[in-house]
Design goal:
Pfam families: AIRS, AIRS_C
Distance between the termini: 34 Å
Number of helices: 8
Family: Belongs to the HypE family.
CATH class of the largest domain: Alpha Beta
Strand content: 15-25%
CATH superfamily of the largest domain: PurM-like C-terminal domain
GO biological process, one term: protein maturation
Organism: Chloroflexus aurantiacus (strain ATCC 29366 / DSM 635 / J-10-fl)
Order of helices and strands: HEEEEHEHEEEHHEHEHEHEEE
Helix content: 25-40%
Largest sheet: 7 strands, mixed
Protein name: Hydrogenase expression/formation protein HypE
CATH architecture of the largest domain: Alpha-Beta Complex
Number of domains: 2
Structural class: alpha+beta
């Protein structure tokens, strides 16, 4: 993977400053620049916290144990999509946030905002899917709450989940741990969840069925950690896709990131959908993939271990971290050029998780 050529930033310019928004817009929930601004300039100051990059989960110590805790809300539309529904998505998504800190999940709580008029048969299927996903992951749903809103004031059901997980002794993983020289690995094909949602919502076919990749990744993470590879960072590229995840890591760790587009596993149907609709696969959401930054000398060993796991069979080395251009992600294109891979300002595909 040739990454030696120096990059010339002299002709590059910064994008225009973000405009002020007096009201909430859909882009505030898209995981891009507007989401970061909302958190850093509204919520964190209100909570008495300094503006800072945030990880997938918080870490707290109880006695001699370290717990990872994450809260997430799910507002996907439609509620049912190829490969899953909002229920299992809520369970898997929260487990994955915990797993990205190297933790193994222990328990979940769930809160339901129900819209008046929602068929109980649909709600039953969603609840059963949540229970099944939790059992498959070896966790228990231990508490919850239910509220109902007027007809027309919701999309059937919104679900908020909180997860708790135990971080093994000696494991320190986080976005701030990434360092220059790290190899960057993605666990499999990207973009399938976002395109699966799009195909149902818009009634568009892309030549082959696209099924969501929703899955709980904690067992893959356990296997990766057990390999002995020096893993510095884990991230599941959900809202905002691979681009948002890599940018957040680059900015948090103060490193540059260089990836090679041809090495990124993108299914033909995802590529076709993006070409048709003018979207970048790197911005499309995933729900069963992870990105890891690992010591360069351990990359081949970790790749072999990941490919032996059902959720890592298509794992691929896609680039390296660098001390150059800190906070910036660049991609080598198929024609030999270079482009900046930025985070979207607002929304590309609404309500995908």
């Amino acid at each position: 993977m040739p990454m030696h050529e120096p990059l010339d930033f002299s002709g590059w310019t910064c994008p225009a400053p973000l405009r002020d928004y007096p009201t909430v817009v859909m882009g505030h929930g898209a995981g891009g620049k507007l989401s970061a601004e909302l958190i850093n300039h509204l919520f964190l100051p209100a909570f008495g916290q300094p503006a800072r990059p945030l990880a997938d989960a918080a870490i707290t110590e109880i006695g001699n144990s370290r717990l990872a805790i994450s809260t997430d809300s799910f507002v996907v539309r439609p509620l049912f999509f190829p490969g899953g529904n909002i229920g299992e998505l809520a369970v898997n998504g929260t487990i994955n946030d915990i797993a990205m800190m190297g933790a193994q999940p222990l328990a979940l709580t769930a809160s339901f905002i129900l819209e008046e008029g929602m068929p109980l048969s649909q709600l039953g299927v969603i609840a059963e899917s949540m229970g099944r996903a939790a059992r498959q992951a070896g966790v228990t749903l231990i508490a919850g709450d239910t509220k109902v809103v007027d007809r027309g004031h919701g999309d059937g059901v919104y679900i908020t989940t909180t997860g708790f997980g135990l971080i093994p002794a000696g494991v320190t993983i986080g976005p701030e741990q990434a360092r220059p020289g790290d190899a960057i690995i993605v666990s499999g094909a990207i973009g399938v969840h976002g395109v699966a949602i799009l195909s149902v919502r818009e009634g568009i076919e892309f030549g082959a069925p696209v099924v969501s990749d929703t899955a709980a990744l904690h067992d893959l993470v356990r296997t990766m950690i057990a390999s002995g590879a020096r893993i510095h960072t884990l991230r599941d590229p959900t809202r905002g896709g691979v681009a948002a995840a890599l940018n957040e890591i680059a900015q948090t760790a103060g490193i540059g990131v260089e990836i090679v587009e041809r090495d990124i596993p993108i299914p033909p149907a995802v590529q076709a959908a993006c070409e048709l609709l003018g979207m970048d696969p790197l911005h499309i959401a995933n729900e069963g993939k992870l990105i890891t930054f690992v010591e360069r000398s351990d990359a081949e060993h970790l790749l072999s271990v990941m490919r032996s796991h059902p959720l890592g069979r298509e794992a691929a080395l896609i680039g390296y971290a660098t001390a150059d251009h800190p906070g910036v992600v660049v991609a080598r294109t198929g024609i030999g050029g270079t482009r900046v891979v930025d985070t979207l300002i607002g929304e590309q595909l609404p309500r995908i998780c």
